[in-house]
Fold each of these.
Amino acid sequence: MRYFYGEYDGSEFPTPDKLFGFDQLMQFILEYGDHALKAIEQMLQDPKNEAQSELIEKLIKDGLLDKNGNGQIRLTPKAVGRMQRRALMEVFSNLRTGQREGHEKITTGAGGERIDGTKPYQFGDPVSELDLHQTIRNALSRHGLPQSSAGRPASIRFDEKDFVLHLHEGTTSCSTVVLLDMSGSMMRYSRFLSAKKVALAMQALVRSKFPQDSIDFVGFYSGANRIPEALLPLAMPKPVTIYDYQVRLKVPVDQLSIAPQHFTNLHMGLQLARRILRKRTSENKQIFIITDGQPTAHVEGNFVHLLFPPDTRSTVATLKEAILATREGCRISTFALIEDYWGMEWVGFVDQLTKLTKGVAFYTSSGELSSCIMESYLSGRKKKAYIA
């Protein structure tokens, strides 16, 4: 056994609660999902883990964890909210300084914060936003000082051109659906962990800064399903169960749950996103796609086709669905995770998708994902970005 000696810096040694606090527990749950909750249940049952058991019981008393009658541990809404806020702080601490925290739109009238500048009054504008000082100044400069006559007070003459209004930072609502790739390859390079943290941060951002916005999350794999807010921290990529070099499966939609789940059915994800956004009344609608590969599944009638290597039929079906979404007023942004440089030929699909939908493409790594998504969500800029 080897020993290494160093000078003690005087700092306090960490106590068990600091080594196994809620922040560490959050990271554990985000990384392992349901498996993490099962591990916590085993800690409670193991008499050797007395210190950890006490800390977990404290989290239960604090309302961050809940235990049902069968001893199963689950996250509480309070815990999910705290995880969202923590993720938001982590994401924004890494963003470049000077970025606006808001959807860019300048208009008149109530709603947003008042900003510098004025505009001429137009019929229908709210008179409550008149800049009285500038309006009076305009009237006096145009018509001169008021003249009083015997027995009558002086009056200022106003014309329509004299009236000006304050400018405001308008509030425009936005409905967003984030499509999270949950195929088997998303487990590599901590891709899905990064995507989940961004998802939690976006939830916290919408809730705190943009209450007029809506945001939904859809996981797509061999199928596609909405991810409820309470279950988002537990979501995980689907494990790979088939290792054949070629797969051609045709599965009825109603039997898809018993089929291999690790394929990439972006086609079905876009279908579900369109259905969600049709019910929203926001002025702006957008779809964010986070993926690390081209489609390997699509829907035809009542069947789902699972195809590997990727097949042109899946590509064409997915592109058609994306075009339908844009025709319904949805803006599409794609975040392509490209750590696997040896497999870069699949980004051709992203190029096609971006050109056909006149959307936005970000070619990035999981470590840069949060910056790309937050900048796109806040500014709404339409551009193609390559992140080195």
Amino acid sequence: MPYEQERASRIGHVPTVLSPAIAEAMERWQTPSLEVGEPTHITSRLVPLADLVLDQRPEPTYAIAFDGSNQEVEARAGYPSVRVGYMQIAGVYVNIAQFLGANSAGLVNARELEKSHITQTVNAVLPGSNVHLKGLKGKETWRAELAHSFVTSNITDFGEPFTLTDALMTIHGGPGAPVTNLTLSKCPSCGSPGRPEQVTSATGGKCSEPMCSGALYPTDILRAYEEFSEDGENIRPLTVAMNIAERLLLVSYIDGFFRFAPQMLAQGLFITDGPLAVYGPTAPMKSRFMEYWGQLCDSLERQQIPVPLLVGIEKSGQFVDHAYAIKEHIPAGHVMMLDTPYVNTYILNKDADHYYGKDEFYGRRFIYKTTTDEILVVSVPRVPGGPPYEKPWVLPDGSSTPTLSEQFESYPTLRATLETLDQLQTRLYPNAVIPVALAHSASSLPLGTGRSVLTLLAQKSLGMPEESISLSRFKPQRSGFRGSR
């Protein structure tokens, strides 16, 4: 690492460029080929969307999309640096009929388009390095503030406020039936599993070890605090918190409809930005989302109500890159089953029998080419439930037998989901659909001036020396949720 103000030589790269060892090493490496060659391994997995079974359901009348963004800023640079993390989650409700009706005689009626959707946002701030509550260390402060942000973030569309903490308790119980307590695998303070178990309610608890008695929070079950750094950047735990908050906001709406108007679920399309999956320390939550979905399907079936359409849409990443590479071999209006041997062989470079997706996914990925030749990478849950990925059955000769999770019949909502997304496309961005674009626009925390304003807000609130730009030049945004249905 250089000293402060030290600069590298302008020709300092020359020894690296001329090194025979470096050139020889890179010549040995291989990268995924974008040349598909004979595409039978692609075409054999394609099905026209019109050939899939269309489950009996009313036409979708609304879509709700969820997206989030975050930023970590330095309130004080240097050492010890003081950092603060912001996150913003948005949910956008789109009236599908009104949205489609905004197009008249080839022109878009901007007023009708504006009336067709409602945007609601929730904002939160979390402490970073060298920020703490009185009497608490950095990680303890982060845990306490994450719990506070979840319990104060709520929706009121269904009457009484329903918080993200309520949603967290609900997916550990069932539709309309939240649990009263959560059992943690260990105490975040002392690391003890506890005897008896470590238990917390929605309002909190205490470590069962007498020598500790540290505070416990319901959000500790997410284990996002394991990524927290006392002195460095904390964008990773901030991203974990944002992603799980997006999913819990979606659960808040699905459970609200289930409790007050379950028949309305059959008319809805619920969209998350990114796949139906959870990663990192929150990966164990995958089983909770999957079990909640299975219970929801069972309950709605008993009431003879079709399940809602639920889909995750990816805008970037390894699977999106692969979809672009094979795009020319997929006819418009066709959907591709990404079975596990294909994923392992052509996307991940793993053994064909590698058990992909068992720990993170509660929905299965598909590639769909729309009727306008755009590419969508989506994930959809099984109905009436079950794991979307199973251990592949690879025979000794290298061939494979499809598992139950690799059969289109396990995804009866797939056709209706993709047909609805086909109607909601936009040419504003490549391979985009309107609800997700609106949600992203509403949730985005901008760079540049926006980042400067967030930095100044942190400096002003923490009593740090402020930069020259004044906050008075900008109108503060109202926090919490906006709008009503």
Amino acid sequence: MESSKLIFLTSSPSVYSLFIVIGILLAASALISGSEVAFFSLSQVQLANLRKSNKPADKHILRLTENPKLLLATILMLNNTVNVGIVTISTFLSWELLGKNSENAIFIVSIVVTILLVFFGEILPKVYVTQYNLTFARWVARFFIVATRLMQPFATLLNRISGGIEQRLRRKNKKMAVSAKELEEAVEMTTAQATTEEEKEILKGIVKFGTKTVKQIMQTRLDIAAIDIETDFHELMDKINKWEYSRLPVYRNTIDSIEGILYVKDILPYLEESEKFRWQDLIRRNVLFVPDSKRIDDLFKDFQSKHVHIAIVVDEYGGTVGLVTMEDIIEEIVGEINDEFDNDVSLYKQIGENIYQFDAKISLIDFCKILETDHAIFEEAKGESESLGGLLLELFQYLPKTGEKITFQHFKFTVIAVTKKRIKTVRVEILPSSSTELKEFEPAK
């Protein structure tokens, strides 16, 4: 009897229409989720090209991205409305198929709807749109122009609520920022005339000490000198003599699997041993692993409490992204120290009036110090990058070829040398007039 009732219900036109409505809502959820990725993943280069375009869709995209809070609020409200509709209709459909008194109805709806929303409404569209963000943004731009107009009253209310919370947090952070700025100004005002510029810089370094993160000062993964744990003793000694470092990370198979740190001083009593000597027994296993977002003042305290002078920097997946030492931290206060982690070759040289040549691995902080410019001008363009090479990859959106040029603000960058994996050398020309946006892109000929 129950089976015949279920067959009757599934053949009912109303049930079919409910399935169709759920399918339409799932498609709408996918479109809205994909739109969020499309609009908010547009690069500076793509936006610069859109400004030069006369296509209506491109003008719509620029108009939407000029007010990101309104756009985001509209997307979130539409997405939540559609998802609530899917859940509501799915619950009603389960009642039609299984009966309102069925104990399994809610459980089944929760499992099925969650899977459908996560896969079809989130994962699938975002994976696709990530690769074709500009094409997708053009396709949905007109719809969101209309949607933002309709949702503006509600979006404005939400933005006011969130704005109040944001202002509270900003006020708290501003107090810290203003305090640091005031301290820096106080250094200039209160230091005696007999105080040297070097001493003033040390005092300023102390003021800014708590604002910097490990990512800004670390040696990158590509610059780490590390030893495979399977290396024999004679080969190990050759590398120690070649590199002249006092501490070496030891890894197994790949540098993402750090086993410990080898202190060269621990090997000194065994210099006459054969190539079969078990130098691996000398490895110190108490490795300090830190995230790249850790502040250097906190890391300094960790170095003191754990009695170590070196840490391996890891990403969210546990992979090795860099290395930081006590010397790197101290340099942020006292300036450059010629230790074993610094190359003798300078990271830059001046080759003409307002023309410089830089090693692309130089940090953006050092780059700005050398050219006496404000680090904040690269804040939006650099993304997660902290090096000059990383900034250029963000601007180009691909690995450029030798000779390619790009202009940002009042800097003209020319790629001088690249490898298969990274930019090596960059020529930088300081232009006489500044601009607030990307002005020029010239591919290699």
Amino acid sequence: MAQDTYTEFANTGLGRRVTKALGLPQPAKLRRYRPNAPLVEGPVVVVGDGEASDTLAAQLVSWGLDVRRHVGPKEKLAAVVAVFDTISTPADLSDTVLALGGLLKQLLPSARVITVFRDPTGTEDPAIRAARKGVEGLTRSTAHEMRAGGTANGLVLSEDLDVAAPSVAGGLRFLLSGRSAFVSGQFLTVSSVNGALPEDWSAPLQNQVAVVTGAARGIGAAIAKVLHRDGARVILVDVPAAGEQLAAVANQVGGTALQLDITAEDAGERILEHAQQHYGRLDIVVHNAGITRDKLLANMDASRWDSVIAVNIESQLRMNRAFLSSELFNRTEDSVGPRIVSLASTSGIAGNRGQTNYAASKAGVIGMVSAASAQLEARHGTINAVAPGFIETEMTAKMPMATREVARRLNSLNQGGRPEDVAETVAYLTSPAAAGTSGLTLRVCGQNLIGA
């Protein structure tokens, strides 16, 4: 993984003076999750009227946070939660938006702004939908205005969803926490009352069994480590050629390794057999394995195209059919059933020169999770995707230096993400606290300016 020496320099005394004088990007050190650290370090202000704002404020208080409705002009703030639950026309945005705007200069480094509103597609009323879409626009723009590692995201609730539903609290906590350090300008949708809040927030996956494909290195290894940290027992899958490295990661997390080509017809059945033999259950599947075979479309050949499609999407479709036909993966406990998370990519959203095969496969992943959501919901389960942007990995370290530097700065946080940023989002989406969210593709890209 290449070292981001510019970000390190920009966070020194001299670096801050030089970058400011020259008008250069000033990437901040992001507040990332640390076990047993405070959820936020400072007051949280809730703005907006109505029952929903009262309910969310009470939830924040129950976590021991310093929750305010009004603050002095010089107080420093860790977060602002702006609730737009009662809006019925764009004119209704004004009071809450201006209250939010008046607090932005008081935000601490790595602060959070979270807007809470109802899904625009949940109404056919033009004025109400216009108002709700307005919240989307102002949230994205606020994210571009955040400074010092701060982020702004939206928590979107389905039309009749009770604000007290567990997954609403789960989403709010994720967006407030260091787990969402590289998530900005995004919208987390909660559409059902399914879910359960953990007794121990430091181990939300306690007693769960998860399988992670492509787990020998990079993002896959980070996912395995974070799931293990959160209490899960992990099955790590990768190709036989990566066997030694796979075994090393498995030993680190106390998991079991399975050497397997996921394009094999019986890959899903073999994973199920391994889970049955070693753990007697399977709760979580993370489809991380993927390959690139970049070439301009004019020069593309069948080998490059077919191999990327086979690994990145066809294998997932085949394995999911096996998992969903198995009783081992279809158990339901406390309104929480099986969970699947697939790795997509911002390339599948915005496209990328020389990656028609990769972009097609990752767009296919996004389509798959959207369509399969109903199948999983029928089992009280979920399927979601995570779409990373520029992440500091062995692969991106091989990019030409100038290209890599541009890619790092091409987002609102002015830096690349880390594998653990992707892993934290995957872990959240596999948790019972996220069981009300399904069919979603959540970008982990620092609000990448391409395809935003």
